[in-house]
Design a protein that fits this description.
single chain, mainly alpha
Length: 282
């Protein structure tokens, strides 16, 4: 189940490249279809979505939902600007940001494992950067991907508070609702642009790469140790790069592969160091 979830998460960037719409429309469509899938699943399983909600958790859900919206929009901008591989590798820097946020927000000391993690991610990003000109498409896409990783790291921190007393299904539902409401005003003017095929891809993105992928990942935690599942999910960039190579002929260079290996190693190190603290929404 964890490998299936990793593959579906990896396909997120592929669908972002296939859909001929801007990042806000893709984000809105993804959230809307995910909402429908999660609501039907909750109804079928008779899972109350209001359980555990109070004013504080509602505020935290709004904050985390806005961070999720920023994460998705910046990721899809990265895909449009720099391609699937650059977007995914930039996003994969999130464990380094989580380590930094733990130090800055929770006053945790950085140990040797975190120091190695930060070093690996930094070296990996340097290797995959096509040039140090922000105007170059690949570099711009990588920077947007890194911003997406930062937003996801902030989301992870917010989820530590929002998730207390709530199951993963309810958390995912309310966050997707906030995403849909937040981006709707920006996507409204362009909602007529997607073709029927684009809406089909959006449906697949929302139902399978969001709703089903999240469910499979959570279910995998019932049989696997959280660290083991986290290390399997670390294969997401590998699946994304392989799919982009196959579908779009986006062949990675040796330097990019070396940087990707360092970044994936950093994610594996992070997964071994601690259990995942955030609901996976990439």
């Amino acid at each position: 189940m964890a490998h299936s979830a990793a593959l579906l998460f990896g396909l997120t960037g592929v669908f972002g490249a296939l859909i001929r719409a801007d990042a806000t429309v893709i984000t809105f469509g993804r959230a809307a279809f995910a909402l429908a899938a999660l609501a039907l699943f909750a109804l079928a399983r008779q899972r109350p979505l209001l359980r555990g909600l109070d004013r504080y958790k509602l505020c935290m859900l709004v904050v985390s939902g806005l961070l999720l919206a920023a994460h998705w929009v910046s990721f899809f901008v990265a895909v449009k600007v720099g391609g699937v591989a650059m977007a995914t590798l930039g996003f994969a820097s999130f464990p380094a940001f989580i380590a930094l946020l733990d130090m800055l927000v929770f006053r945790e000391r950085i140990g040797s494992a975190e120091a190695i993690l930060l070093t690996l991610v930094t070296l990996g990003l340097v290797l995959v950067t096509p040039s140090f000109d922000a105007g170059e498409a690949g570099t711009a896409g990588l920077l947007w991907g890194v911003l997406s990783g930062l937003m996801f790291a902030l989301l992870a921190v917010a989820n530590r508070r929002a998730a207390r007393g709530m199951d993963a299904l309810g958390l995912a539902f309310w966050q997707n609702l906030v995403v849909a409401l937040a981006v709707a005003p920006f996507a409204a003017a362009s909602l007529g642009a997607p073709t029927r095929l684009d809406w089909f891809y959006l449906g697949l993105l929302g139902v399978f790469c969001t709703g089903l992928a999240h469910y499979l990942f959570v279910k995998s935690l019932e049989r696997l140790h959280a660290r083991s599942a986290g290390m399997i999910i670390a294969l997401e960039p590998v699946y994304a790069i392989a799919c982009a190579w196959w579908l779009f002929a986006q062949q990675p260079s040796a330097r990019m592969l070396a940087g990707a290996a360092l970044i994936v190693s950093a994610i594996v190190l992070s997964a071994r160091a601690r259990a995942p603290n955030a609901v996976r929404d990439a």
